[in-house]
Amino acid sequence: MQLIxxxxxxxxRKVRVTLLEKGLAGQVQEILASPMEDPAVLLAANxxxxxxxxxxxxxQCLYDSWVICEYLDSLAPAPRLIPDGAERFAVLRRAALADxxxxxxxxxxxxxxxxxxxxxxxxxxxxxxxxxxxxxxMEQDVATLGPAPTLAHIEFAVTLEYLDFxxxxxxxxxxxxxxxxxxxxxxxxxxMLATAPPPS
Length: 200
Prior knowledge:
Blueprint: E1 2-5, H1 10-22, E2 29-32, H2 40-45, E3 53-55, E4 61-63, H3 65-75, H4 86-112, H5 121-141, H6 151-166, H7 177-186, H8 190-194
Helix pairs in contact: 1-3, 1-6, 4-5, 4-6
C-alpha cells in the first residue's frame, strides 16, 4: 500500500497515527506530496487533490481520512479502534465532535492566510465559536474515553495538537484542564511523537 500525505496536514496525521497504533506502518510506503502543487501522484490517487489518499495493493484508491482509518482498522483484529456494538456509536460520536472542531480550526487557519484586506472576520469568528463549543463538550467527554486507544482518542489528540500548532492564540488549555492533562499523557505515545508536525 502507498499513503500519499503531507506532514502539516492533521488529516494525514490521523491516518499515520492509526497505522502506528494498528502495527501496520511497515506495510505502507509513505509518499510526501504538497496538495497545493497538484502533484501527479496525488491526483492519480484522489481526483480532488486532497491528502491523505491510500493506494491499495490492487490499485484501488481510498480517500478521506475517515474512510482510510476505518479501512485500516478492518485489516487487523487488535487493537480495535472502532469497536462493535453500542460502543461503536459512542466512539464515532466523540470522533465526529473532535473532527468537527478540527474542520473549524482548519477553516479559521485558511482564512488567516488570505490577505488581510479580504479576510471575512464574521466567518472566522463563527469558526472560533464552534471550536469553543466543541472544546467544552470534549472537556466533559474526555473522562469517558477509557484507557484503550480508539479512533476518538486519535481524533481528540490530533485536533488539540493542531490547535497548538496553527492557532496558539486560542490558548485552549486555560479553560480546559481535563483535556490538557489528558493530552499531556496521550501525546507521549510513540505514534504521536513519530507524527508530530514540523516546526512552523
